[in-house]
Amino acid sequence: MWLEAFNRQQKKRFRYLIWLSVVFLVLTVMLVQWRQIDAKAEQTQLKVLEQNFHKSASSLRQMWELQDKPEQLEVDGIKFALTSLGWPIVLRDGQVDCQQMWDLLVSREGSVDYLRFYSKKEVRSGQYNSCFYQITGGNWLELFYQRERIRINGFLTD
Q1: Is the per-residue pLDDT at 107 higher than 90?
Q2: Which residues contact residue 151 at a Cβ distance below 8 angstroms, ignoring those fewer than 6 apart?
Q3: What does the buried/exposed string (b/e) look like for 116-134 if buried means 16 or more CB atoms within 10 Å of the residue's CB?
Q4: pLDDT tens sequence across 35-80
Q5: 10 Å Cβ neighbour count for 77?
């Protein structure tokens, strides 16, 4: 009788062990899949943001064309100049104002936040500085001017 009770207890423990193993396996697979989906979502967010910046800049350039190429325009309380080719640029002390450029180009499509930004003078930008915006941990958006044209580049650092 004692041996029979012991065998039943062993079978019960074995079933719990099997269930626990299955649950652990399912959770592990879900975690791996979630990380892959999260990485794709961050890449997609960066691409959409880059497209929104291009779309906003193009829209502002069209506005410049339609208003007979004025030297300055104002949108949503942000006054900005335009390059000789009509691309929007917000300058402060002769350099691109990265915060105002973000507000100008992103506000037209909805609010997106960045973690931080910095400005850097680069050779390819000619007379203007480049703006780098950190969107998520390793996703960055770069805004710079090359030959009076706006350039927007999303890139990963991970």
Answers
A1: no
A2: 142, 143, 144, 145
A3: ebebeeeeebeebbbbbbe
A4: 888 888 888 888 888 888 999 999 999 999 999 999 999 998 899 9
A5: 8
**Lowest mean per-residue pLDDT among 2-6, 112-116, 150-154:** 2-6
Name the residue with tokens 């943001």: 49
Give the full edge-to-edge strand order of the sheet including 78-82: 72-75, 78-82, 88-89
Integer Cα distance of 83 and 134 in angstroms: 25
Residue in the block written with tokens 């999303």: 154
**In the prediction, which pLDDT does 124 show?**
63
User: Of 123, 143, 145, which is closest to residue 134 (Cα–Cα)?
Assistant: 143
What's the rounded Cα separation, in Å, for the pair 29 and 129? 45
**Angle, helix 98-106 to helix 2-66, in steps of 10 degrees:** 100
Cα separation, 149 vs 45, in Å, equals: 24
Measured CA to CA in angstroms, residue 135 lies from 34, 60, 70, 129, 154 at distances of 20, 23, 33, 19, 10
- Joined together, the tokens standing for residue 103 give 């507000």
